[in-house]
Design a protein that fits this description.
Blueprint: H1 14-26, H2 30-36, H3 41-56, H4 64-79
Amino acid sequence: MRTNPKFDFSHLTPAERIELAQDLWDSLDPAHVADAFPLTDEQRAELDRRLAELDANPQLGRPWEDVEAEIRARLRKGSGR
């Protein structure tokens, strides 16, 4: 791990570090992220294809809350919690 004299993360648990990373990511302006990491033509085409498929078949989509709950349940099961 890279050391930084301004920030010492060694006292944080892995879960706390992940939460911090997520908080940092969430603090970014989406426009700046898009500028820093532009999509390739292939990525843009795939996103367009997926959006068109969802528009044509909205019943195929799932609410984010359902997907998140499923992911969290799988993680709990995998970690033995």
